[in-house]
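Request: Show me your protein:
***
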Amino acid sequence: MNARLNLLDNPMVATSLKHITSAGRGLKDSTVPASTQELVRIRASQINGCGFCLDMHTKDAAAAGETPERLHMVAAWREATVFTDAERAALELAEQGTRITDSYPGVTDEAWENAAKHYNEDELAALVGMIAVINAFNRMNVMVRQPAGAYQPGMFG
């Protein structure tokens, strides 16, 4: 499978990617636990069907020590007993923020209030930014049919 457009070689896209990547890097420095950040990126990528981002973030999470059991359970987080209440709140926020067009008003007050029980204002802002950034990457990769499977942990960092 070949991508429809080479996102790294096209100057127009490369400029956009530089800014999106920069935003994502800034958010990684938040106090939201790194494992939660990866779980959020994985869940959004699952919903959006982005194989490239799933490949990247599951490998990065595993390289950082995330367990296979938890990685396999992200799609079924509601039924899984392996996630903390804070992680569940972040996954719910990621899910509703990603499916924003599927249901008005998007993220429910209940989901927001649940997340606010576990994360302070700066962490909520970081989660919102992370969800927005991963959705941007997902959409670009899905549109160009970016192949998945060749990512090596840390290869872009």
Notes: The mean pLDDT is 93. The CA atoms of residues 42 and 58 lie 7 Å apart. The helical segments are 11-28, 34-48, 51-63, 68-73, 85-98, 109-118, 121-144. The chain is about 65% helix and 0% strand.
